[in-house]
Each structure stands twice: as C-alpha cells, then as structure tokens.
Amino acid sequence: MTDSTNTAPLAGIKVIDWTEVQSGPSCTQLLAWMGAEVIKIERPGGDPTRSELLDIADSWSVYFLQLNANKKSLTLNVKTDEGKEILTKLLKEADLFVENIGPGDVEKMGFGWDEVHKLNPRCIMASLKGFNQGSRFAHVKAFEPVAQSAGGAASTTGWNEDPFNVPTQSAAALGDSNTGMHFLIGILSALLQRERTGEGCYVYQSMQNAVLNLCRIKLRDQIMLDNLGALPHYEVYPDFNWGKAIPRAENTEGGQVIGWCYKAKGWEKDPNAYVYIVIENSDKAFDILCNAIGKPELAKDPKFVPWNNRQLHKQELYPLIEEYTKQYDKYELTDQLGKAGVPVGPVLDWYELENDPDLTTDGTILEIDQGGARGKFKTIGLPFTMSNFKPDYKRAPDLGENNQEILEGLGYTADQVKEFTQKGVLEAPATPHNAAVQVIKH
Length: 442
Hints:
The chain has 442 residues and is α/β, with parallel strands linked by helices.
C-alpha cells in the first residue's frame, strides 16, 4: 500500500546501480536523494574513486563520498556463477537497472537489455556510455576530457591567440556529471512511461550526446558561419581570418549581447577579483550601463551606438568600463550595478563558494556526517527544491557494508553469505584504511 504521507518522489523505487567513478554515480546519487533504494554493485576492491584523490588518513575519498551518499553497497563478483545468480535475483525485483561499465561488458556477462527484459519486463534498464549505439567510436572507453573533446566543447573553449590557442576543457564536468543529469531525465521519463504501459524500456545515454546538447548554440554559430562567413558576436570579430569552423569563444557571452570579465578592486593580488558584465543590445540598456559607471557620454558616442557599432569597437569599450570596475570590489560592483539594472555577477572562487553564507543557509552546500576519521564533509545537494519535500541526506556506505542485509533479503542465509565471502563471490565488508596523505607544500 502506498504511503501518501511520504513525499519523496521515488519512494518505493528499487535501483540496482552498477555504475562507478562519476557519470553514472552522479545520476544514481540523485535517485537516492529523491527517495529510491539504491543498491550499488561494487567489483572486488570497490569503486575506484574510494581510494582516489585521498586527503586524510583512514577515510574514503571525498570524491567517492560526494557521489555515493544514501546508497547501499554490495561487493559482488559478477564474473562468478553465484554472482550472476545473485544479480539475477536482484534484477527480478528491481524497478531500475543502471550501468556504465565498459562498452559491451554488460552484454558479455549476460545482462544486456534483451536478457534483463526477459527476466523482468517491468524493469527499466539504463546504460551510459561514451558514444552512441552504432557510432564508429562505440567501442571506445570515454572519460571526461574525451567527451568534452568529441562533443564540441573543447574546440570552442579557450583563446585564439598563441600560445594559448589550444582546445581547452571546461572545469565543469560536462562529460561526467552533466551526462548523469541528462541520464536522469531519460530514466525519469521511462518511469513515467511505465505508469501507462506497465512495461520497462531501455534508456541509452552517451556522454558525447550530453555534451552536444549543452553545446547546441555552437551548432547555431556554425550554421551562421556557414551562411555569413563571419560571426559578429565573437570576441575576434572583425579582424579574424575566418576558416570553416567556428573559433574559440574566449570570454564572450555566447549571444548577440556583449559580455566580458572585468577587473575589480584587488585584482593585482587576487586572480578572481573580477566581475562579469553583460551589455544588452538595446540602446536603453547601454545608456543604463553608461550612467551607472559615470560615463553617460559613451551612450552618445557613434562608435558604440547602435549595438552593431559596439560589436565593431568592443575592444575599445572594455578598458573604459574597467576604469570604473577597478575602483570597487566584486561584491560592491554586483550590488551597485545590479540595482541599476545591469546584468552582472562576481567571479566566485571555490573557497568563497564553500563558505558562501547564502548557499550554506539555503541548503545548496550542506554537511553530511560520515563518522569515523572523516567526520562531516561538505557536498552539493539536490540541485532543485520542491515545496513539499526535502532530502534526508545520509552518509555513503562502507565497502560491502550491506552485503548481509541485501542477500538475506533475497532469501540467502547468514551461512551462505559467509560461504560466498570465502569463495570470493562477495568481498568482506571493509572500512577505509589508508595512511596519512603526504604532499609537498611550498
């Protein structure tokens, strides 16, 4: 019977989570936070991120903890006959089977879509890979920079002048966590579809497609370049030797408006003492900016009015605006220009974000008590809010912590669990044991 008082969106949904590292776990993390029971299948040794990028002794890495809170851990060797049997039993009662292991691996072990659908027609299977099915690169194992490169992000990020004219990665996880978000959309859509059809479907998400979707305006620009031979809204316009493909975007806003990063007070010592200001297309918006920075005469200068003249002379405009911005710190600028109606924002570094009073108060950046040597760690919570639901954030599991609970739930006895552990079907539960991390500090 459904509990009408439980507002967790995915309460009652059982997820078999055969994912590791970041792209898949970022998706199943959100499923867990929305109330699903997420059973994380871990190979012997566990998810590689448990022991990557360590920072304190006797603790799983914060990388792992931030992606696997609220889950249960089952250390299962699926290459064994008994391991296959256990996974089969889990899938027979699952709502979702989510995997991002190597290309073709799940099929080789007998758990491809056709087999899973026969086992449990209501189960939705969801696969996350680097490239699309049928792609000439479908066999390639992808990581974050591979996806950014193949998805059109790297070629359009960075600067066009030597020696910095190289394809550049975004610091945002466009290939990993972004793909997890896109993956989640497909999974939630499949759950809604099953409400009508009563049958599960197969969801497939490639990292390349997720990056492409975030870069769709670059396809817009490529089409414009095909037709016009130049792009007025790019920083390098007009004095650029245009080729067949769009150039790197540098610090432009991405649309027809003029956006740029300006130095704020203290920039000499602080590499992030900057604000980003957008000059909208209308002459009225430009007049508002000019008055706000104490230079009303610029709004009457034919070099900058109308908007298309501003595009031709934007390199002359930047230092004039910066004469103003360098007088105030980035917070003062955001407050002053924001009140005037100018689109503006401070460049916040991660020390500032980690301790931001607004983000910590509203629950965006929260603390989870992992216990043990780690104690509390910070993470970024559910990225949206619901008026009638707040996630119950819990710690990440130790390696194999839930082996016995999960197998006894399938009908196995404690003696069988012990035997499976001795035979290597299961790995014995383990808490973290690593030495203090030694780094060189200057």
